[in-house]
């Protein structure tokens, strides 16, 4: 069983989080969707998908470009964990909403999704990445709560480690 991270990043924040998750899990492979075709995901049984939210609740550009190919994948029999970056202060009504779009698509492609997290400690008004009082994955806010990032990653990795490796 092999695991890899696929992500996209517009200003480097998701890039940094992807690297930290990889080191924390023991240097698993990391692919940037800016220069990797989405069908590379087919090579792995377990994948971590991540990226930031742009526009007003939209996917970032590289996710946008990869989207059509991504939507053609068959993720049944795959275990997927998700992470997203956003700014809960400036985009309080669409905080990390792109993660919600990725989640919905991953579910419709029949993956098993793990790694939901509590919304406690965040102060946004609304997010499409939220179901009741849970986010659908790890949520990082480098703009306002960067001091919490390492601990959030560490707790999440601990939570998913057994199932994602
Ligand atoms: C023009 C612009 C639009 C943004 N839109 C959103 C948004 O709708 N929701 C959100 O949570 N964050 C939004 N953000 C914040 C980014 O998602 C955040 O800064 C993130 O850490 C960037 O990660 P990246 O460098 O990996 O792309 C926006 C930032 C900018 C500059």
User: Distance N terminus to C terminus?
Assistant: 7 Å
Poorly predicted runs are: none
Question: What is the number of helices?
Answer: 4
- What is the 3D shape? globular
Briefly note the structural class of the backbone.
alpha/beta
Query: How much β-strand is present in the residues?
Result: 15-25%
CATH fold label: Rossmann fold
Domains, number: 1
Write the topology of this structure:
Layout: E1 3-7, H1 13-25, E2 29-32, E3 46-54, E4 58-59, H2 61-70, E5 79-85, H3 97-108, E6 112-114, E7 117-118, E8 130-131, E9 134-135, E10 138-140, H4 149-164
Parallel strand pairs: 1-2, 1-3, 3-5, 5-6, 5-10
Antiparallel strand pairs: 3-4, 7-9, 8-9
Bound molecules: flavin mononucleotide.
Please, could you describe this protein's structure?
The protein is of the alpha/beta class and 165 residues long. The chain has one domain (3-132, 146-164): Flavodoxin domain (Rossmann fold, 3-Layer(aba) Sandwich), CATH 3.40.50.360. Helix content is 31%, strand content 24%. It is built from four helices and ten strands. The chain has helices spanning 13-25, 61-70, 97-108, 149-164; strands at 3-7, 29-32, 46-54, 58-59, 79-85, 112-114, 117-118, 130-131, 134-135, 138-140. The strands form two sheets. Strands 1, 2, 3, 4, 5, 6 and 10 form a seven-stranded mixed β-sheet that branches. The chain has a three-stranded antiparallel β-sheet with strand order 7-9-8, with no helix packed on it. It binds flavin mononucleotide. Flavin mononucleotide is lined by residues 9-14, 52-57, 60, 85-87, 91, 94-97, 142-143.
């Amino acid at each position: 069983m092999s695991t890899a991270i696929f992500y996209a990043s517009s200003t480097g924040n998701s890039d940094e989080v992807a690297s930290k998750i990889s080191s924390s899990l023991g240097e698993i492979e990391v692919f940037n969707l800016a220069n990797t075709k989405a069908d590379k995901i087919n090579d792995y049984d377990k994948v971590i998908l991540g990226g930031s939210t742009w526009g007003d609740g939209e996917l970032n550009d590289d996710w946008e470009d990869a989207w059509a190919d991504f939507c053609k994948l068959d993720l049944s029999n795959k275990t997927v964990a998700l992470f997203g970056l956003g700014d809960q202060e400036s985009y309080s009504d669409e905080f990390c909403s792109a993660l919600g779009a990725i989640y919905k698509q991953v579910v419709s492609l029949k993956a098993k999704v793990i790694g939901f997290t509590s919304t406690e400690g965040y102060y946004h008004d609304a997010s499409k990445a939220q179901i009741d009082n849970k986010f659908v994955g790890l949520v990082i806010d480098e703009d306002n709560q960067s001091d919490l990032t390492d601990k959030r990653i560490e707790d999440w990795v601990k939570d998913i480690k057994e199932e994602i490796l």
